[in-house]
Amino acid sequence: MKLKRIHHIAIICSDYPASKHFYTTILGLQIIGETFRKERDSYKLDLAIGGDYQIELFSFPAPPKRINFPEACGLRHLAFEVENIEEAVEDISGHGIPVEHIRVDPITNKKYTFLTDPDGLPIELYEK
């Protein structure tokens, strides 16, 4: 078996309208499709990132909270590549989203920073 690429990333949110707004309006991901699954009382929102990757945003009634921040076992954070980190931080901060200070990766010498989605999921922005 040979893995080709990441097909999608699934995220469960607690407040669907807030998370939909965050991922589409603030981060600028494009909606591929939106489905309400009545039997699960759940939305599934398919989002495109640069045509290559996809995020599936799910809502479920009363999902459990994230165990701890940010070093819980399992998914640590999502990282998105940006052209200009200063512009990205300015844009996101303009929406009232707190963003950590910009740091430099000591291994790659690239700039990066962190913010969180509406449920506290860590999001990394990494400059190209």
Automatic annotation (TrEMBL):
The VOC domain, residue ranges: 5-128
Name of this protein: VOC family protein
GO MF, one example: metal ion binding
PROSITE patterns: VOC
A Pfam family assignment: Glyoxalase
InterPro entries in the record: Fosfomycin_Res_Enzymes (IPR051332), Glyas_Bleomycin-R_OHBP_Dase (IPR029068), Glyas_Fos-R_dOase_dom (IPR004360), VOC_core (IPR037523), YwkD-like_dom (IPR037478)
SUPFAM superfamilies linked: Glyoxalase/Bleomycin resistance protein/Dihydroxybiphenyl dioxygenase (SSF54593)
Keywords: Metal-binding
Membrane-spanning segments: none
